[in-house]
Amino acid sequence: MKEQDVIQYRKKREKAFQDYLKGFITPHKLALMEQVLAKRTRHFTVVLEDIYKAHNASAVLRTADCFGIQDIHMIEKEHAYQVNPYVSRGAAQWWMFGVIKMVGGQH
Question: Which GO terms describe its biological process (predicted)?
Answer without folding.
Answer: tRNA guanine ribose methylation
